[in-house]
Amino acid sequence: MATLDFERPLRDLEQRIDALRAEVCRPGADEGLSDELERVEAAARRLEENLFGDLGVWARVRLSRHPDRPNTLDAIGALMTDFVELRGDRAFRDDPAIVGGLARYRGRAVVVLGQQKGRGVRDNVRRNFGMAHPEGYRKALRLMDLAQRFHRPLVTFVDTPGAFPGLGAEERGQSEAIGRCLERMASLRVPVVATVLGEGGSGGALALAAANRVLMLEHATYAVITPEGCASILWKDGSRAPEAARAMRMTAAEVFTAGVADEVVAEPVGGAHRDPAEALRRVDEALGRHLETLAAWDGDRLREDRYQRFRALGEYQDG
The pTM is what? Predict the structure, then answer.
């Protein structure tokens, strides 16, 4: 497991616990080792509660990017059955930064899609670190059309720093592809539930999150730009990213307070990366509950609910 710097003291204790457990299990082990093991385990529990009980904004941003957090394919594998992945946009190529297809969720036929970061350097390069090209969003558009055509709820998972801003992506119509996803999601007559698993960055995230309900894991983030990008624009200094993160109010609790997210899903102590199975079980509980409610609504109500939800966001004053 990758370890962030503020997690290092806890990781050192856990390694000590593993070593003690191995010693305790050996024949003829010193009886005093069991007492030592209990003391170190208690110290680890206290440290874990202290470390993660009052995390700062920048620590939460770093947790949202943790390479071992559950990702879209993890969520599909844990929550869905009979998954059939569909690839390609029928215009240019397949984009591995977005995955999706047909599946069953709690016995109900659904369409599922989301951004996919890689595991390890090589896979991350192949998936472009979860930053989709236009063909990725056009693939998503195909899946949204399938959801509408076959009256299947749409389940999306968000985990991206943002859409890829490279020259080729712009030449192939990045903003148009994102805009069409937003337009199509807004018009769907089926339930749409989005879950932010890690990073929710810019229009690249919103393209899969114009939903009836938006859920966020406790240490996920959601903002119009990365903190580094914000700091570079405002102060011409990317090193001021922690300051930008605080000003942007991008943590799950702050996003929920602003009404942009509908529910914050609590993570296991220490973060979703320390117990992915439990984190996804909690996502399953929240997702199933919201989907069950929305499934009883007709198409007109679903569209109107989505429209009113986004119209109500933000604050303004008449001039």
Answer: 0.87
Say which residues have a Cβ less than 8 Å from residue 90's Cβ, sequence separation at least 6. Answer: 138, 142
Which residues form the domain of 93?
A: 61-311
pLDDT in tens, 57-100: 898 999 999 999 999 999 999 999 999 999 999 999 999 999 99
Which of 54, 70, 92 is the C-terminal boundary of a domain?
Answer: 54
Both structure tokens of 69: 């957090």
β-pairing, 80-85 vs 98-105, is antiparallel
**pLDDT per position as a tens digit, 268-298:** 988 899 899 999 999 999 999 999 999 999 9
The answer to whether 113 and 100 have CB atoms below 8 angstroms apart is yes
> In the predicted model, what is the mean pLDDT of residues 203-217?
96
Q: Please give the helix or strand (H or E) that residue 198 lies within, else none.
A: strand 192-201
14/136 same-domain check: no
Q: Name the residue among 27, 24, 52 with its Cα closest to residue 38.
A: 24
Please write the tens of the pLDDT for every residue from 227-263.
999 999 999 998 999 999 999 999 999 999 999 999 9
Q: How many CB atoms lie within 10 A of CB 188?
A: 21
Alpha helices in the chain (DSSP H): 8-24, 32-53, 57-64, 72-79, 121-126, 134-149, 167-171, 174-187, 202-206, 227-235, 241-248, 252-257, 276-295, 299-311
State in Å, rounded, how far the first CA of the chain is from the last one. Answer: 53
Alpha-carbon distance 142 to 101, whole Å? 10
Does residue 194 sit within a domain? yes
